[in-house]
Amino acid sequence: MNVSEIDVHAVPDGAFLLDVREEDEWLAGHAPEAVHIPLSELHDRADDVPGDQQVYVVCKVGGRSAHAAAWLNGLGRRAVNISGGMDAWQAAGLPMTSETGGEPFVA
Fold first, then answer.
1. What are the distances in angstroms from CA 69 to CA 7, 42, 100?
2. Among 17, 74, 81, 94, which residue is least crowded by beta carbons within 10 Å?
3. What pLDDT, on the 0 to 100 scale, is given for residue 94?
4. pLDDT tens by residue, 32-76
């Protein structure tokens, strides 16, 4: 699997950020601008991912998102994996929000 990776600090403002983690992970904490499509639903929802712009894919640590990015690239999308996932995002102090009402936590 040959997928380009990008550091969390290099994700541009306004980028299409695709979070492929499961629902409980998403609810616990995610980037405010991210679009949530769990990896288990990506095949059926591929049309929800734009084909006319770079897509930045994230999961917890980077494994699932690397697979998702490779699959999307196989469809002709331009996807890159965010190195270190949401663990790296949180460690970098980048903005996060929680749907559970508490402090964001990447479980």
1. 15, 11, 28
2. 74
3. 95
4. 999 999 999 999 999 999 999 999 999 999 999 999 999 999 999
Q: Active site includes 59?
A: yes
* Cα 66 to Cα 81: distance, rounded to the nearest angstrom: 5
Catalytic site residue from 59, 82, 86, 106:
59
What is the rounded CA–CA span in Å between residue 22 and residue 26?
Answer: 6
Determine how many CB atoms are found less than 10 A away from the CB of residue 56. 23
What confidence score (pLDDT) does residue 99 get? 75
**DSSP-based helix, strand, coil % in the chain, nearest 5:** 35, 20, 50
Which structural domains are found in the chain, ordered by start?
Answer: 5-91 (3.40.250.10)
Cα–Cα distance list, 2 to 5, 17, 69 (Å)? 10, 20, 10
